[in-house]
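Fold this sequence, please.
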Amino acid sequence: RKQVFVTSYVWRLPELAGANRALRATAGGWELEGIIAAQTGPPLTLTAGVDQSKTGIGYDRAVLTSPTATVYGSGACGAVAPCVSYINPTAFTLPAVGAFGNIGKGEFRSPGLFNWDMGLHKSFVIKEHLQVQFRAEFFNATNRVNLAPPTGGVNAAGFGTIPSAADPRIGQLALKILF
């Protein structure tokens, strides 16, 4: 990946020491924590999906039909849903039998990622050695669609499409007793 940014934080909110007891108990002393990750997509190598060179060394690379061809774009999904068109399938073809493709390893990029996991919690003191902790946690809090890499074999069904994505927003609440 060309760029990766990851940060984590814990922010303890004020205790509200000067406020009345009820306000201090409900609104004071919360902790907000989280992890934020943003990164460009991983390298993507487009292959023929078959051993066109007949060398037995694995899948050969695809052939870019024209140096001016639009590589990223629509057309891969057609009328199929749900599906995301990412690679333009008309820009690529199989190499001739006995030949290799003209695309370099990792020449293209898969979609990037942005994810924000966050949590909020507070401990309520019941007695000296008894606390109840309330937690609210959210994974992918912004509910951003983080797409998986596209199908990268020219002869594969769905070449250039992204058929899946990472998890959507997930939230959970917890009540924990500490003694």
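The helical segments are 21-27. The CA atoms of residues 41 and 66 lie 24 Å apart.
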